[in-house]
């Protein structure tokens, strides 16, 4: 049965329609209508429970020995002693005494929020516990050969599902004031729509209450890439326009339950990235007829509509909530002063930040360069849709890790925009980390596993000015993820060498100084979230890329503060008004 169903679903290329049966998730039957589109068409019905979904699409998962919610272990005071000073005056003075004096022109206002972020699939583990349904990431990590370079999964991750009390207590002990996390949609709705899993809501209730108990402000993201598998296999996930209503229904469940305790909300995380995952690997999910290059933009279109619905639902529940899109990008530096490079820079803004920020902040519609391309295969937004999308981000919540030099393609822009086979089509701009001398990089490199990421904090003030001037966010700008992969950190095997992370430490210090500079010049920055609370599953890089300000021993699930954790908090100790 399992085998024949699999062969129908994956090899036959037959459209699959799964619709949930709204009863208790762990025993719910799913009615699956399998309809062939060929001449020998047939219809059959198969009942699938949550367990069946796991068995059919994912297979066995790993579990950890701590598998019930645990009370926090006391945090040893020795682990709260800051590291020895990492900084020395610039070469060549050679003085061994730090000269870091406070700049009296800088300050973070009292209500500036600073915290750390994590995301459900990357940290929770306990993937099958308490009724969670599979997400596309359970399939990508378990079934798709070499999708994750290390063959690792999120089955256990940081075991946050059971150890969150300790995790929150540790943040409070360090002096971190805000914790931003995402909800697992397929925990709350194992089939992505319909049936609601009360155990999952109870769990997140307690995560939120634990934050409040420790004086840590919870911030919640509804969607951080872990799409319920059933939605992907029913209508192609974000490629299907049904997603807007399903996302809205999920958002409504969440807002109704948690709006009274959580003020800051993010609807979707980094749509450029998760829409860029389309096309998904072939043969593991429902087939789609949308051409591969168009898929990210069809996804983006549905994301905007879904986001707008969720925004308006939140506002109808409580109009005071802060609800925003969470986008990503970086500053775009024109590599030479040629007009072609200037045009390339504009294309880069349009295809990255502008893709989602123009519709939500400016006019409900795409930037013109993007629209020229999209209108060849997507319907224009109706006036009503534009109206519902415009103005639906209360703050500019941006994940801004780095910057890039931008230049025209070697062929020129026109030869690219007119040629859909061009390697840079449809964006038609090129990027590099090297200055025009082709010798020096923009800044110190992160880990080789993240070639997109160099420290480029010098450009942060210009970037913040650009965001404020271009998109004019009413509620200001928040840097909702920033951080760096300490080079070769995964190769370090002894604790003492892991815990001192100088590149990450200087990144946080210099980035926050850059924010202070921009703020002293009138840019309204309202908060920052360091990525990440601790080392976690870095998606297709597995655990080999480290972004944590805490180290986690994956054998024991013990947590340890790294030097960067102290550097981060220290900047606020020094500069935030009491
Ligand atoms: C849901 O499943 C149960 C048990 O299989 C069945 O009795 C019931 O009729 C189904 N409900 C719907 C609406 O399909
Ligand atoms: C929970 O972990 C214990 C060991 O600590 C193990 O004996 C038990 O089987 C686990 N339970 C589940 C449901 O994984
Ligand atoms: C991952 O698994 C595939 C298939 O079993 C194997 O070919 C590959 O070598 C594995 N990669 C690593 C890093 O273990
Ligand atoms: C609405 O949200 C605001 C801001 O988060 C909060 O102060 C207020 O208590 C909320 N109102 C209700 C009825 O929950
Ligand atoms: C979009 O909303 C902004 C305010 O949020 C407003 O200034 C602008 O006129 C609106 N644009 C359109 C096309 O409705
Ligand atoms: C993009 O830039 C790199 C150099 O940074 C160059 O090697 C490559 O040929 C360029 N690609 C195109 C398509 O212009
Ligand atoms: C379009 O781009 C492809 C890939 O770079 C190239 O082989 C082809 O010659 C280009 N076609 C034209 C008309 O320039
Ligand atoms: C992680 O824990 C294991 C088991 O106690 C231990 O052998 C290993 O040395 C620890 N790793 C580090 C880096 O401390
Ligand atoms: C202090 O901050 C101001 C405003 O950002 C800046 O102009 C000045 O150079 C800074 N002074 C030092 C010593 O860094």
TrEMBL record:
Protein's name in the database: Glycoside hydrolase family 1 protein
GO biological process: carbohydrate metabolic process
Alphabetical UniProt keywords: Glycosidase, Hydrolase, Signal
Biological source species: Polyplosphaeria fusca
Keyword Signal: yes
Entry's family note: Belongs to the glycosyl hydrolase 1 family.
InterPro entries, alphabetized: GH, GH_1_N_CS, Glyco_hydro_1
Pfam family membership, one: Glyco_hydro_1
Signal peptide residues on this chain, from the entry's feature table: 1-19
Annotated GO MF terms: beta-glucosidase activity
